[in-house]
Amino acid sequence: MATIAIVSRKGGSGKSTLATSLASYLARRNDSVTLGDLDHQQSMRVWLSRRPSAAPRIVGWVGDSGGLTRPLIGTQHLVLDTPGGLHGLGLAKVVMVADAILLPVAGSVFDRESASDCWNELRTHPRIVSGRCRVAALGMRLDGRTGASEIIEDWAASVGLPYVGALRAAQVYVRAVENGISIFDMPEAVTQVDRSQWLPILDWIEPVFSEGRGTDAPAKRTWAAARVIPLRPASHTSALPAAPGPTSNPDAMGDLGTRSGSLWSRWLPAFLKRSR
Ligand SMILES: Nc1ncnc2c1ncn2[C@@H]1O[C@H](COP(=O)(O)OP(=O)(O)OP(=O)(O)O)[C@@H](O)[C@H]1O
Ligand SMILES: [Mg+2]
Fold this sequence. Notes:
single chain, alpha/beta, Rossmann fold, 7-stranded parallel sheet, 7 strands, 40% helix, binds adenosine-5'-triphosphate, binds magnesium ion
């Protein structure tokens, strides 16, 4: 089993949204996925309870406070959502089980400072020093008009942290979470811009899942170099799993404003009705 943990000390940095997206991406590939929750807010339980039965299955798991044991024999992937403020023993327990850690960083200097503190602690752990647990930052909930992605990329380079890209602020994430789904459960036509921003992030994560957990063997394929992701539509989404529903001309959907709004409002009620 391969484990990826989403860690950020800053509350509201997008950890849970990231965890649900990643879990549903893996589930849509027909992999067996467990979504673990170490946060007493139990956001993953809330999201799973809203998940339509037609959506690919994801198993929930709640971490116990006594210790982080590896759950669920038989699951291929564990995606671990963690609480804000994680440090010390709590953080060490996560590092002990994680094969990779993603650190979402939002656009303000407070977010970067908090992430620096977290990274300074993380980089002292032997599993991270040795590369058995890989860590990367990604920009989260960024406004594409502000150059925030470049600022975070520069910051990441200055603290020696791989930077794997950025996800823009988009209502589609908020709406997806409301409905127990993610952008990967939605039609490509509605989510093309956002899917394109996931591509380099998935490139970085993929070796973790394909290599499996806990081996010191060298990676079968080169760990993807960190890349900057422009916060604008990319030209293809071919590496992503097939999404359900209408897939009209994707090139016509570069602007997620009015057109995707109407597509969404047509698609979502139909999807939820099908799942009842
Ligand atoms: N890419 C995004 N675009 C727009 N809104 C987003 C995005 N990602 C997250 N959000 C919103 O930001 C808020 C915080 O997100 P989320 O709950 O995922 O953060 P968190 O780090 O898990 O928070 P906490 O520390 O409280 O557990 C939520 O309202 C969520 O809907
Ligand atoms: Mg959360």
